[in-house]
């Protein structure tokens, strides 16, 4: 459950100044947070509510303030230059999205824009049993834990023990204790999934390099009608996973999505998009499991289109014979004549004797 009430030692808080700069730190009795405008004393925050304003003090006090606090006994020499206090910060508990972006990480995390799409497109709700592969630093795991709640269960398979420890620590810091509805397992997906019960999971989330190699075990453990959603970063991964879903015959036609995010600035009549945006981070591929014994319905390719054969694999003679079949940009003879006619007319305007 989200924490409310007075801010306590051990909690993480988010400090935001008037320029929008955010700093996230853990409250420690007698501790402080270094900023570009002096230091924020944690004792000025502990025992207060969210929404207060704290003012920085000169960093010359840092040695006295941090005396006896582990990790702060030896002040860094360059921090003495940041001596001016009097800068205001608003104090809030970080949202889950804020926490995810600021938490210690070992592996690259999924951005909130992609995580939100996973929850929505995967239709992940309270009380569900969800299987996740690839914990990384725990960004997706935290959101899945929130989505299923303590009435559901999240089972996460992470290959690397170090990443599993990072994800577990981040979840424990966020909740204040280790969530008891999270089953974090280490090992490769196929081996661990083989020990899981059949047709038990309502949803499967794959964040790994080769999700197309994990479909056999995924289908064994998912319920009929269950949703599988994979996050991959490259077009080649996306293509291979989609083709594997189609060839398996037991998954519906995959849906492919990419989300781009752009912030806006609005100040009076000065309304414009931000100069920076979060562009491509990854692709989301979504499909659903068919009931055993039933084959999925897929769109038939046009007979005149060959989207499989690689033209470089053909001989010169085969390539010449099949070039028209392999051409993906089809254009009818009528349209081709119309284009040539239009271009001829335009050329005639600049060169009356020109012909095409």
UniProtKB/TrEMBL annotation:
S-adenosyl-L-methionine binds at residues 158, 188, 207. Gene3D superfamilies: 3.10.330.20, Vaccinia Virus protein VP39 (3.40.50.150). It comes from Bifidobacterium commune. Keywords: Methyltransferase, S-adenosyl-L-methionine, Transferase, tRNA processing. It holds the Pfam family TrmI-like_N. Residues 99-267 form the tRNA (adenine(58)-N(1))-methyltransferase catalytic subunit TRM61 C-terminal domain. Homotetramer composed of a dimer of dimers. SUPFAM superfamilies: S-adenosyl-L-methionine-dependent methyltransferases. Catalyzes the S-adenosyl-L-methionine-dependent formation of N(1)-methyladenine at position 58 (m1A58) in tRNA. Belongs to the class I-like SAM-binding methyltransferase superfamily. TRM61 family. GO terms for molecular function: tRNA (adenine(58)-N1)-methyltransferase activity. One of its GO terms (cellular component) is tRNA (m1A) methyltransferase complex. This is tRNA (adenine(58)-N(1))-methyltransferase TrmI. It catalyses: adenosine(58) in tRNA + S-adenosyl-L-methionine = N(1)-methyladenosine(58) in tRNA + S-adenosyl-L-homocysteine + H(+). It comes from the Bacteria. One of its GO terms (biological process) is tRNA methylation. CDD domains: AdoMet_MTases. Its EC number is 2.1.1.220.
């Amino acid at each position: 459950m989200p924490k409310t009430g007075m801010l306590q030692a051990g909690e993480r808080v988010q400090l935001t100044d008037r320029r929008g700069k955010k700093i996230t730190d853990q409250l420690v009795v007698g501790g402080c947070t270094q900023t570009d405008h002096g230091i924020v004393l944690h004792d000025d925050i502990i025992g207060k509510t969210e929404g207060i304003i704290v003012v920085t003090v000169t960093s010359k006090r840092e040695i006295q303030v941090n005396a006896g606090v582990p990790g702060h006994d030896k002040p860094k020499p360059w921090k003495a230059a940041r001596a001016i206090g009097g800068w205001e910060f608003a104090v809030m508990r970080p949202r889950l999205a804020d926490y995810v972006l600021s938490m210690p990480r070992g592996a690259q995390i999924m951005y909130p824009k992609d995580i939100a799409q996973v929850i929505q497109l995967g239709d992940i709700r309270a009380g569900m049993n969800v299987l996740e592969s690839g914990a990384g630093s725990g960004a997706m795991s935290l959101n899945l834990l929130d989505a299923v709640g303590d009435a559901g269960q999240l089972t996460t398979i992470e290959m690397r023990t170090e990443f599993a420890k990072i994800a577990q620590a981040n979840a424990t810091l966020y909740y204040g204790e280790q969530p008891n509805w999270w089953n974090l397992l280490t090992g490769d997906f196929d081996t661990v999934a083989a020990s899981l019960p059949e047709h038990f999971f309502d949803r499967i989330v794959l964040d790994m390099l080769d999700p197309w190699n994990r479909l056999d075990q995924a289908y064994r453990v998912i319920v009929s009608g269950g949703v599988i959603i994979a996050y991959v970063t490259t077009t080649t991964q996306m293509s291979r996973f989609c083709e594997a879903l189609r060839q398996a015959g037991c998954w519906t036609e995959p849906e492919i999505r990419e989300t781009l995010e752009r912030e806006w600035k609005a100040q009076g009549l000065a309304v414009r998009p931000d100069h920076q945006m979060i562009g491509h981070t990854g692709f989301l591929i979504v499909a659903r499991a068919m009931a055993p014994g039933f084959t999925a319905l897929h769109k038939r390719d046009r007979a005149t289109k060959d989207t499989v054969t690689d033209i470089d694999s053909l001989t010169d003679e085969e390539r010449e014979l099949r070039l028209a079949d392999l051409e993906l940009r089809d254009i009818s003879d009528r349209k081709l004549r119309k284009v040539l006619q239009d271009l001829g007319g335009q050329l005639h305007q600049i060169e009356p004797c020109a012909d095409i």
